[in-house]
Amino acid sequence: MIRFDPETNMDEQSDGPAPKWTKGTQILITFITMFLVCSPILSVECTAISVWPKPRAFSWPTQQATLLSPSFTIESPHHQYLSTSVNRYLNLILSEHFHPLSNQHVNMTNGPTLQTLVVLVNDLAAPLSHGVNESYSLSIPTSGDKASLIAETVWGAMRGLETFSQLVWGKPSWVAVGVEVQDWPIFSYRGIMLDTSRNYYKVEDILRTIGAMSANKLNVFHWHITDSHSFPLLLPLEPDLAAKGAYGSDMQYSPADVRRIVEFGLEHGVRVLPELDMPGHTGSWAEAYPEIVSCANMFWWPEGSEWADRLASEPGTGHLNPLNPKTYQVLKNVIRDVVTLFPDQFYHAGADEIIPGCWKADPTIQAFLSSGGTLSQLLETFVNSTLPYILSLNRTAVYWEDVLLDPIIKVDKSLLPPEHTILQTWNNGPNNTKKIVSSGYRAIVSSSDFYYLDCGHGDFLGNDSQYDQPPGSNQGNGGSWCGPFKTWQTIYNYDITYGLTEEEATLVLGGEVALWSEQADPTVLDARIWPRASAVAESMWSGNRDKNGMKRYAEATHRLNEWRSRMVSRGIGAEPIQPLWCIRNPGMCDAFHPFV
Questions:
Q1: Catalytic residue at 162?
Q2: Which positions ≥6 away from 457 have C-beta within 8 Å?
Q3: Where do the domains of the chain lie?
Q4: Does domain 189-458+476-558 have CATH number 3.40.50.300?
Q5: Burial letters for 425-460: b for 16+ Cβ neighbours within 10 Å, e otherwise?
Q6: Which one of 180, 353, 518, 575 is the catalytic residue?
Q7: pTM to 2 decimals?
Q8: pLDDT tens, 95-120?
Q9: Span 57-183 CATH architecture
């Protein structure tokens, strides 16, 4: 009998260049690796106990387990957020009783029960901010009744508590022993973006998402709060924006709601990054201030006009007018309120998809253009009038890449100091990432080719003739501009520093999957995000390659099946990635021949 498990020995993510294999060789080796990991045909057993995301260094040579004491406790220093986290994990560990999907091949011992997990933190004062140390070490000995978790900060301790919780299973509860873990993330920024303007999500939906993010060791909830469709954020200094721009009084986020979400994030080690997109995507502002919004409530693509003359890229028009002084009076109040409500050091200022036709439809802007002004000068006026105020409030500005890379309307680089500006890329895959970092800017990668979770569901336009084609017609991407659907393996395998020099790669802060909500709402939220966001979580935490530099998505399939099942048991409606039969018959559902 052979027993093989990729996590039996220390396995550190390689920082060196990956071996150059042919496509066929890589698929063959990947398949053989998976087959050896879990194959009844070769009499190779597969342990059902693993951790997601996979730790950077994990050792479990004995594959032993002992019973967890019914009176198990966690000892930790007092800290406002760590103590809450410890209580949450203690309750989870004692009550979860997760039952793995596949057979357990673990040596159950009759040794002493594990009584205590002792948590030690070196720096209790470190705030939850970008770049905070999230490393931890976990030791669960084969003898004795205590395990130890040592972290540099409380946020690293939270990551270690999650790892420990995944090493407990069954009823009565068993815990893996003889385990040594050394763990830390590759990327400091690991996020999910949720659009709550196009469709509204209750606070409980957002909290459930943040809780699942923490379990996956994701650490930034990018909250795209407002857009042209609705303005659900109730701001104390500008209450009419939500009172008139939200879908209804029951579809608003009050300051108390925001405090609850931010506090919940802190209790789970997840930052909340607010975005109020501007100057585009602001049609909803016109309900309160029609005088500051160009082309509001107009049909997005007038009949008989060319695509280049559209007023918006989808239904829902409106851009703030950079020439109206009232615009900045309102904006100063908005920005001040957002900074007060959200303590994070990053402020997302939007600036994507400035559509020429919208500004050109405004009489005051027409006069400006007729006098020799340009659309890019309009955007520069807007940025010059808002960015200094954002920076004066001790925030780092995050913009979508368009502000610098749009082919028609963009600002001069001199207006965006790299030391105070981060650019989030969503177009042209690694090419735009290269353009951003080679210009000296830090980058957050959200490439729509890989990381957009809404893609592949068609389009939401009514009366759409592209869906009335003769049988046999080429359906292309099914009407989805960013189709096809991004599978978990597509997401897992994307290398966000592809094509960059070593120096350029240091400017990539991390990655973020995005769920735009034209065709999403709370009824599909969990399944649209999970477990695909788990794929980006592991690739951002410990990478998508093994210690030999080989892509490990085949080996990850088994672990993700188990992790998805555990998430479901925790109340997250994650969609399945395979039939249960595949899980019960390891290796039988894997591809051997390359699909090229």
A1: no
A2: 480, 485, 519
A3: 57-183, 189-458+476-558
A4: no
A5: bbbebbebbbbbbeeebbbbbbbbebbbbbbbbbbe
A6: 353
A7: 0.93
A8: 999 999 987 778 988 889 999 999 99
A9: 2-Layer Sandwich (3.30)
